[in-house]
Amino acid sequence: MTEPAIRAIDVIRKKRDGVELSRLEIEYLVRAYTSGDIPDYQVSAWLMAVILRGLTRGETSVLTDAMLRSGDVLDLSDFPAKKVDKHSTGGVGDKTSLVLAPLAAAGGVVVPMISGRGLGHTGGTLDKLEAIPGFNVNLSVPQFRSVLGTCGCAMIGQTSEIAPADCKLYALRDVTGTVESPYLICASIMSKKLAEGVDGLVLDVKTGSGAFMKEEKDAVFLAELMVETGERMGKSMVALITNMDQPLGLNIGNALEVVECIDILRGSGPSDLRELCLELAGWMFHLGKVASSVEQGKLDAARLIDSGKALERFRQMVVLQGGDVAKIDDPTQLPHAAQTQVVNSTKPGYVTAMNCEAVGTACVVLGGGREKKEDSVDPAVGIVLHKKVGDQVSAGEPLCTVHFNSAAKAASAIQLLKDSYSIGAEPPTKKPLVHRVIQNAMQPTGGN
Ligand code: URA
User: Fold this and answer.
1) According to DSSP H, which parts of 195-249 are helical?
2) Is any ligand 1 atom within 6 A of the Cβ of residue 158?
3) Is 321 in contact with 154 (CB distance < 8 Å)?
4) Is 7 designated active site?
5) What gap in Å lies between CA 124 and CA 90, rounded to an integer?
6) Ligand 1 atom 7 nearest Cα
7) Could you give the 3-state DSSP secondary structure of residue 99?
8) Which residues, including other chains, have CB under 8 Å from residue 265's CB and lie 6 or more apart?
9) Which helix (H) or strand (E) segment is 351 a member of?
10) CA-CA distance, 19 to 213, in Å (whole number)?
């Protein structure tokens, strides 16, 4: 007896009524939507049912798997070393990828990194890389493999061959009010990352005023979901819940962030950025089995920076991907804005808080991010912070410097920046950079 054909309307009704979908139903939906056999309006209805009803852990991993297999999955089994990547859920001044890919590669882990562009008020790795004149983020898969084979890391954008179901679904979610589901976010992120053919993945899940998940409980829920989904697929996973109540480091803006990454790779740079890079690299080394513990991995990472080996790997990747390495050797040659203006504090005290999303928005307003999908970004503009949360400031002392190419845009950005600083009489209690670490999400934690 043949099975009755699956119909989209029945899958929509089932999810609407809160009934768990079967593997075959989810696979059908993803396959038929990707090939154009189900229209947008039916998938929109299904997505809204998911927003309202959620997905079980099993459904989430089947959806991720179906989206992952909608395109090519890179087979990197001919690379003997472990393949480990890092993914951040997005923040302001979050530039760790540019440090981590060459750093982890210098330590013996292969890093096949497929990244995105800026989203909303958050910056994107591809936009930062493109601030290096000539750097090509659009490598073909054979070129990507060749760079990986030569220097152990390569950084590119999503191609139409990788997880095409996510390309279609993400665009539909964007215009149907269905982005904000942890289950759909998990399937979207994990399908793309697992298509890279990695053995392990370190997730940096941001929480705070500059993150998409403002509440820690939401960040933890998403982190657990992603860790569990990866573990179900046999991957070594960890998620770090990290602070995004203020920007990471001091520089925000594409070329300015590249400069700060070069500082870190040269062994200097802001301490919070170095600390997070070492923490994430420590985990990459541990998951990649080149360090017996995270602590050992952190020590190894510090040595690779201090010896110049990580910087040398970064230079090599830049050359292989067509970038002008002279600009890395002399970062003053990277794009820089025509004008700068200092924003001063109007009163004395301590910086008690920053509206981190507003700082990210100020960078977008300057032209450093996109207001509309088709906008191009200005690599030169951005913000350099002089004061961050906990710092003492006197009246008239600089809080930050705005780097701009348009006075009208600068005026709006400066207002946002002024409003983003809270100055009070008492120093605030500082939050740690890493709030918690989530691993082994599938194992019972004991207790109730
Ligand atoms: N980033 C992604 O890649 N997908 C989402 O759904 C949200 C953020």
Assistant:
1) 216-232
2) no
3) yes
4) no
5) 8
6) 185
7) helix
8) 99, 102, 103, 305, 310, 311, 314
9) strand 349-354
10) 28
Q: Is the CB of 189 under 6 A from ligand 1?
A: yes
Cα 418 to middle of ligand 1, angstroms: 30
Looking at ligand 1, which residue's alpha carbon is closest to its atom 2?
Answer: 189
Find out whether the beta carbon of 66 lies less than 6 Å from any atom of ligand 1: no
Starting at the edge strand that comes first in sequence, how are the strands of the sheet with 84-88 ordered? 84-88, 200-207, 236-243, 434-438
Residue 373, φ and ψ in degrees, nearest 5:
-55, -40
* Closest CA to ligand 1's atom 1: 189
- The model's pTM is 0.92
Nearest CA to ligand 1 atom 3: 189
Alpha-helical segments (H) within 349-406: 356-363
Told to judge if 127 belongs to the known catalytic residues of this protein, a careful annotator would answer no
The tens place of each residue's pLDDT in the chain, 448 residues long, gives 566 799 999 999 999 999 999 999 999 999 999 999 999 999 999 999 999 999 999 999 999 999 999 999 999 999 999 999 999 998 999 999 999 999 999 999 999 999 888 878 888 999 999 999 999 999 999 999 999 999 999 999 988 888 899 989 988 997 888 888 999 999 999 999 999 999 999 999 999 999 988 999 999 999 999 999 999 889 999 999 999 999 999 999 999 999 999 999 999 999 999 999 999 999 999 999 999 999 999 999 999 999 999 999 999 999 999 999 999 999 999 999 999 999 999 999 999 999 999 999 999 999 999 877 678 899 999 999 999 999 999 999 999 999 999 999 999 999 999 999 999 999 999 899 999 999 986 665 433 3
What is 326-345 written as a DSSP string? HHHHSGGGS---SEEEEEE-
Token code pair at residue 255? 């070329």
User: Residue 124 contacts by C-beta under 8 Å, 6 or more apart in sequence?
Assistant: 115, 116, 117, 118
225-238 burial: b if 16+ Cβ within 10 Å, else e: bbbbbbbbeebbbb
- To which residue do tokens 């939507």 refer? 33
Which residue minimizes the CA distance to atom 6 of ligand 1?
Answer: 185
Q: Residues 259, 85, 331, CA angle at the centre, nearest 5°?
A: 10
Nearest atom within ligand 1 for CA of residue 189? 3
Ligand 1 atom nearest 184 alpha carbon: 6
Q: Which of 86, 121, 173, 387 is catalytic?
A: 173
Q: How far is the CA of 99 from the centre of ligand 1 (A)?
A: 22
Beta bridge partners of 403: 340, 382
In angstroms, the CA 175 to CA 166 distance is: 14
HEC string of 250-282 equals CEECHHHHHHHHHHHHCCCCCHHHHHHHHHHHH
